[in-house]
From TrEMBL:
It is an enzyme of class 3 (hydrolase). NCBIfam families: hydantase. Residues 1-25 form the signal peptide. Its cofactor is Co(2+); Mn(2+); Ni(2+). The keyword Hydrolase applies. CDD domains: M20_bAS. This is Ureidoglycolate hydrolase. Belongs to the peptidase M20 family. It is found in: Endoplasmic reticulum. It holds the Pfam family Peptidase_M20. Pathway: Nitrogen metabolism; (S)-allantoin degradation; glyoxylate from (S)-ureidoglycolate: step 1/1. It catalyses: (S)-ureidoglycolate + H2O + 2 H(+) = glyoxylate + 2 NH4(+) + CO2. Keywords: Endoplasmic reticulum, Hydrolase, Manganese, Metal-binding, Purine metabolism, Signal.
């Protein structure tokens, strides 16, 4: 044990040194860096050997790929739709079984497991300095209807495996390492995305709203949570909130959900920013009428107002001049929805995203102006223009980007810095912790459908980069 301990402490130094390598090198030019001497004295090894020792440590990181694949496959069987599709809805019977499966794996990895009032699950590997804020990683395992088995899952099962990788290598963390399984990243049941991480970030309006939130079957959030064994003692969900600074770093491993890495043949994406969505609902009302009898000059067609607004959204998005601004009208409903009836009501749901909050908010303002103008011109009533959410985008933390880049380099993996255009729990963790993300390629960029796929090799690479980045951050 004692020789193992020495070895571990030495790894601390090596990886710690690597993280601050560039900083020490700069100061060493100005005056001898005293920390290098201390490290040499303490480790008993001359520092010039450190490169080969780092590479020994990096080569010793081995992922049990087959075991991990088996776990991914097994988790996918907790589903309410037939394979290869996966449907796993918050607090359903299958979700509860899947949660049990995750907690069991955390236990087998030697993590101490805790759950909060909404079922965010935390598995902690206690570090040598447990009083320091831990480094966290994690993702979600809920799955929208008829989706695939990799979205989110890679960031939970892969994170538990990353811990196992580090344990097998003999590594001992300084800061504790924590795996988080977030509750309800998908908005399927209660219409709220990233429910668990939003609450962790301390969003009080959400904690209040959840007291009266119901699902499509009129089952309240709290009743649903209780049926899954959560929120037992209290209606007040503020116990879930975490203080800013609870973690020194949060890093999420995820499939890209886009085609770039696969098309360019690159192994790892290091995320520098997460675009943030805003959602808007719009309703127009007109007089409707018979499609034959009402003549064109007399009409006020709520459907045409909606059509015109959909085109206006596209125009305002393109006016931003940036490829990073996007806008989508994903829902356009007409009432009464008959071929021979002029639409008397129309309902649009608009999603717009950007990594630049100001630019995105400009799109929202212009869309609002257009809605008003169109309503006047077409003599319909703009009965609703409601901003459902307007989350700020997040930038990744410099140290976490550097840790992921350094890990990729040391593992001889190609990587590129990129933007996450989909959002993730990381967007909300960024409010309470420095944040970063690691992407791996996925087949044709498919996600949210059964064809979603990442190769074993890509998953293995992602887990290794995560493990090494966690090791570095834990010594930070
Ligand atoms: C939903 O449930 C609540 C309380 O049980 C009840 O008061 C309400 O009428 C229900 N709403 C619908 C639409 O069924
Ligand atoms: C990366 O490549 C270098 C140079 O070819 C080699 O020495 C090193 O062992 C490789 N590292 C890993 C983890 O494969
Ligand atoms: Zn996801």
């Amino acid at each position: 044990m004692s020789s193992r301990f020495c070895h571990c402490s030495f790894l601390h130094l090596l990886i710690g040194l690597f993280i601050f390598g560039s900083t020490s090198a700069i100061s060493a030019h100005e005056n001898e860096d005293p920390t290098i001497k201390t490290m040499e004295a303490f480790s008993g090894y001359p520092i010039h050997e450190s490169n080969s020792l780092i590479s020994d440590f990096v080569s010793s990181l081995s992922v049990e790929t087959q075991t991990l694949q088996n776990q991914i496959d097994e988790l996918s069987t907790f589903s309410d739709s037939p394979a290869p599709s996966v449907t796993r809805i918050l607090y359903s019977e299958k979700d509860v079984l899947a949660r049990r499966y995750i907690k069991n794996l955390m236990g087998l990895a030697g993590l101490s497991v805790r759950e909060d009032a909404v079922g965010n699950i935390f598995g902690r590997w206690i570090g040598d300095e447990p009083e320091l804020p831990p480094v966290a990683t994690g993702s979600h395992i809920d799955a929208i209807p008829y989706s695939g088995k990799y979205d989110g899952v890679i960031g939970v099962l892969g994170a538990i495996e990353a811990i196992n990788v580090l344990k097998r290598s003999g590594f001992k963390p300084k800061r504790s390492l924590e795996v988080i399984m977030f509750t309800s990243e998908e908005p399927t049941r209660f219409g709220i995305s990233c429910l668990g991480s939003r609450l962790l970030a301390g969003i009080e309006t959400l904690a209040n709203n959840l007291k009266s939130t119901v699902d499509g079957q009129n089952i309240s959030f709290l009743d649903a949570a209780r049926s899954a064994g959560y929120a037992n003692d209290q209606d007040d969900l503020s116990s879930v909130f975490l203080k800013k600074g609870s973690y020194s770093a949060f890093i999420e491993l995820h499939i890209e959900q886009g085609p770039i890495l696969e098309e360019e043949g690159i192994s790892i994406g290091v995320v520098t920013a997460i675009a943030a969505p805003a959602s808007i609902t719009v309703d127009f009302e007109g007089n409707g009428g018979h499609a034959g009898a009402a003549l064109m000059p007399t009409r006020n067609d709520a459907g045409l107002a909606a059509a015109e607004l959909a085109l206006a959204v596209e125009k305002h998005v393109l006016e931003s001049g940036s490829i990073d601004t996007v806008g989508t009208v994903g829902i356009l409903e007409l009432h009464p929805g008959a071929i021979n009836s002029i639409p008397s009501r129309s309902h649009l749901e608009i999603d717009t995203r950007d990594i630049d909050e100001k630019r995105r908010n400009t799109v929202i303002e212009k869309t609002h102006q257009s809605a008003t103008t169109i309503a006047n011109k077409r003599r319909v009533k703009l009965s609703e223009f409601k901003i459902i959410n307007q989350d700020p985008p997040a930038l990744s933390d410099k140290l976490i980007i550097e840790a992921a880049e350094a890990a990729s380099k040391e593992l001889n993996l190609t990587y590129k810095k990129m933007i996450s255009r989909a959002y993730h729990d990381s967007l909300f963790m960024a409010r309470i912790s420095p944040m970063g993300m690691i992407f791996i390629p996925c087949y044709k960029g498919y996600s949210h459908k059964p064809e979603e796929f990442s190769s074993r090799e890509d998953i293995t690479n992602g887990v290794k980069v995560l493990a090494l980045a966690l090791a570095k951050l834990s010594l930070n």
